[in-house]
Amino acid sequence: MHWILRVGLCLGLLAVAPGLVVAQEAAAPVGDGLLGSYYRGRNFEEFRHRQVDATIDFQRRNQAPAEGVPAEDFSARWTGWLRVPTSGHYVLHLVVDDGARLWLDGRLLLNEWRGQSVSSYTLDLNLQAGRAYALRLDYCQYGADSYAQLAWVRPEQLAKAEQAVSWRTLWGLVADPPQRTVIPTRYLFSYNPTPQPVPAPARPAPLVRRPQAPVPTPRHVSRPLAHRQPPARARQPVATPPRPALPVAAPVSITPADTRLAEQLAQGQALVWPNLYFAQGQADLLPAARVSLDTLATILRQQPGLRLQVQGHTDNQGDSVLNRQLSQRRAEAVCRYLVAGGVADGRLQAKGYGGSRPVADNRVVGLRARNRRVVLQPLP
């Protein structure tokens, strides 16, 4: 009798579990796909088109992937976020023809950057529901047909497969492997669906004053009757002023002009970031430069797949070797500030060019400041 009740309870739980999963998915935000950037050339040589792709699932025979992109010898980069519906063990399937590289939260999971026939790769991952994972997929096509598919097997599918294996093995049958499905659009986001909240300023802890305990006088010591000194006044503890909490930076608002600059960087265009200049002979960031870099850090956090070479430049005043060293320090100062603002160190590369690449006439004193600049060059 007991085993009948246990079997019934297990069947009831299996019937209720899918309903709970459906309810959780209904309350979750719905994605729009991944941001795809298409280039001519196998290694992102020339940017041609940009669009949001609902899924990664295409097979084209002598057909261009997007407007202005050739049907052969092209490359593509998809960036965005993956938000899984339930926590557990997932199996990602990536099927490509030809090369591919896959990152998740900045960690390189797959690197098969080469010409090859249709090949399938699997990745076992433990993912947590409610968390947005930064996703980046690079793809290159050499010739003939192009094929790419990003699919998965969800935890509940793996659990059903394990149950089928146990039952079929009991009867001497071979269980069918779980079928992969293309990751639906609702779980892919071109924007971060879970932005990090701004922490509140920390309050200093109150200073607690504890009274000093009286010192007992030994009984065997006689007290003198004459020339008694007045009792010393107990010292009051000196309150140490609490250190003020570090100010929390207010959220940076992105203007339409900043959005246009961000689009130019995403398209692979090098540009001079506004107000990112230095005093002559100095590598310290000016106040206006810090404000401008706060905006840049916000943009880079929103585009996890964007990598930059930070190029430092100087005017031609002074020794050329010292100028190159100064420009290197300026580039490194910018990188340090961005890393402190939440940008991964591996996404930035500092390079000093000294005064070898002027953009203004150094003979005119008023124009030399334009050469003391920092250029942002997107990297593939």
Structural description of this entry:
With 380 residues, this protein is of the alpha+beta class. Helix content is 24%, strand content 28%. It has two domains: 34-189, Jelly Rolls (Sandwich), CATH 2.60.120; 256-379, 60s Ribosomal Protein L30, Chain: A (2-Layer Sandwich). It contains five helices and 16 strands. Strand 14 (307-312), helix 5 and strand 15 form a beta-alpha-beta unit. The N and C termini lie far apart (66 Å). Mean pLDDT is 78; it is low at 238-250.
Order of helices and strands: HEEEEEEEEEEHEEHEHEHEE
**CATH architecture assignment name of the largest domain:** Sandwich
| Major sheet details | 7 strands, antiparallel
**Distance N to C terminus:** 66 Å
Total discrete domains = 2
Topology:
Blueprint: H1 2-27, E1 34-40, E2 46-53, E3 57-60, E4 74-83, E5 88-97, E6 99-104, E7 107-112, E8 119-127, E9 132-141, E10 146-153, H2 155-170, E11 181-182, E12 188-189, H3 256-266, E13 271-277, H4 287-302, E14 307-312, H5 320-340, E15 348-352, E16 373-379
Parallel strand pairs: 14-15
Antiparallel strand pairs: 1-2, 1-4, 3-10, 4-9, 4-12, 5-8, 5-10, 6-7, 6-9, 10-11, 13-16, 14-16
Helix pairs in contact: 4-5
List keywords for this structure.
single chain, 380 residues, alpha+beta, Jelly Rolls, 60s Ribosomal Protein L30, Chain: A, 2 domains, seven-stranded antiparallel sheet, five-stranded antiparallel sheet, 16 strands, 24% helix
